[in-house]
């Protein structure tokens, strides 16, 4: 199915998962996924009519149009932070865990956050996911400025927009795999979409384990349950906090493949904190934190390239 959109556009192609504008004839241009590795370029300004296959990343296109970072943050990025400071304590003993962090995560993008221990990764993830509040600065999730929300509003927003995967799975031991997966919907008083639930259980490879309790599952299987639980509400963004930190290397590989597949097949926007370069190597973009600031950003990179940058920023 195609949808025709008319817009005044300045189209700039910049990253792998974004779009390019292809001139079909004088009046019509088509947005299509960009091929990997193309350099950034500006196509120009024009009022154009374009058709896009259903499900194409329109947010990315809108982001490409925006010259103003504020506009981009509010309207196009799934997650955005601007000048975020997080201070613990006060006076002489105050610690600034984040010292002015700005970033934008576009739809359908997998972003990895890396950095030495104590660089502010967990603090940043908790603030982006609305689990902690910034001392200064602003944070948007799906266009909502969460820094203006009260606790109830924030809880509601988290429920509908955010999925979370933890290092230690955090499953409820008395519930079966399937009950764990559907729990977030039950808490929200919603019924699972049966077809989506079946697809999800199948995609994560749990169909024949659905009635097992966590104690009857391996670590990798438990993390699969946790991933399905995070995805069941079709969140705007999935946050993964060291998702492979408690798994052996073979199982880690399988979990990373699953996360990458969910980006590829469902267009699932994902932000993953990790200290493992092999994990960060599946990302479209790697942000490096040091001393509470983003000090370097890489596009798709190998584990060796990521380790080299990590050694540099840890100095
Ligand atoms: P990372 O996840 O990269 O290891 P953190 O975000 O946990 O880093 O921590 C960043 C900095 O903030 C560290 O210096 C840490 O000691 C400090 N910090 C984190 N949480 C607290 C807290 N609750 N109270 C005081 N300092 C904290």
Tell me the number of strands: 14
Helix/strand-derived category reads: alpha/beta
Low-confidence stretches: 1-68
Spatial strand sequence of the major β-sheet: 10-11-12-7-13-14
Describe the structure.
With 315 residues, the chain is of the alpha/beta class. Helix content is 32%, strand content 30%. The chain contains ten helices and 14 strands. The chain has helices at 58-65, 69-75, 121-128, 151-161, 177-187, 194-203, 219-231, 249-266, 277-280, 303-314, and strands at residues 2-13, 19-23, 28-33, 41-53, 79-88, 95-105, 110-114, 136-141, 144-145, 162-165, 237-241, 269-273, 285-290, 293-298. The strands form three sheets. The protein has a six-stranded mixed beta sheet with strand order 10-11-12-7-13-14, with helices on both faces. Strands 1-4-3-2 form a four-stranded mixed beta sheet. Strands 6-5-8-9 form a four-stranded antiparallel beta sheet, sandwiched between helices. It is globular, with a radius of gyration of 20 Å. The model is unreliable at 1-68 (pLDDT under 50). Bound molecules: adenosine-5'-diphosphate.
Helix and strand topology:
Blueprint: E1 2-13, E2 19-23, E3 28-33, E4 41-53, H1 58-65, H2 69-75, E5 79-88, E6 95-105, E7 110-114, H3 121-128, E8 136-141, E9 144-145, H4 151-161, E10 162-165, H5 177-187, H6 194-203, H7 219-231, E11 237-241, H8 249-266, E12 269-273, H9 277-280, E13 285-290, E14 293-298, H10 303-314
Parallel strand pairs: 3-4, 7-12, 7-13, 10-11, 11-12
Antiparallel strand pairs: 1-4, 2-3, 5-6, 5-8, 8-9, 13-14
Helix pairs in contact: 1-2, 5-7, 7-8
The structure holds adenosine-5'-diphosphate (ADP).
């Amino acid at each position: 199915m195609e949808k025709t959109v008319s817009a005044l556009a300045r189209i700039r192609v910049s990253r792998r998962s974004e779009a390019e504008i292809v001139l079909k004839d004088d009046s019509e241009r088509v947005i299509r996924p960009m091929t990997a590795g193309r350099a950034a370029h500006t196509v120009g300004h024009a009022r154009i009519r374009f058709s896009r296959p259903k499900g194409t990343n329109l947010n990315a296109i809108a982001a490409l149009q925006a010259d103003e970072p504020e506009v981009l943050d509010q309207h196009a990025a799934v997650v955005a932070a601007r000048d975020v400071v997080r201070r613990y304590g006060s006076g002489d003993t105050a610690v600034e865990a984040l010292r002015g962090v700005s970033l934008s995560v576009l739809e359908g993008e997998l972003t990895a956050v890396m950095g030495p221990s104590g660089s502010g990764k967990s603090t940043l993830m908790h603030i982006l996911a609305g689990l902690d509040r910034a001392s200064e600065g602003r944070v948007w999730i799906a266009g909502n400025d969460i820094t203006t929300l009260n606790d109830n509003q924030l809880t509601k927003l988290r429920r509908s927009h955010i999925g979370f995967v933890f290092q230690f799975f955090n499953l409820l031991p008395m519930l079966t795999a399937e009950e764990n997966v559907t729990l977030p919907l039950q808490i929200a008083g919603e019924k699972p979409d049966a077809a989506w639930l079946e697809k999800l259980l199948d995609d994560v490879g749990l169909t024949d384990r659905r009635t097992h309790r966590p104690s009857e599952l391996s670590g990798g299987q438990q993390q699969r349950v946790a991933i399905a639980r995070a995805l069941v509400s079709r969140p705007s963004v999935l946050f993964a906090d060291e998702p492979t930190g408690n798994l052996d290397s073979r199982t880690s590989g399988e979990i990373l493949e699953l996360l990458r597949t969910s980006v590829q097949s469902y267009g699932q926007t994902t932000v993953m904190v990790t200290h493992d370069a092999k994990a960060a190597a599946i990302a479209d973009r790697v942000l490096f934190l040091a001393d509470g600031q983003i000090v370097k950003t890489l596009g798709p990179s190998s584990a060796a390239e990521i380790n080299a940058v990590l050694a540099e920023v840890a100095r």
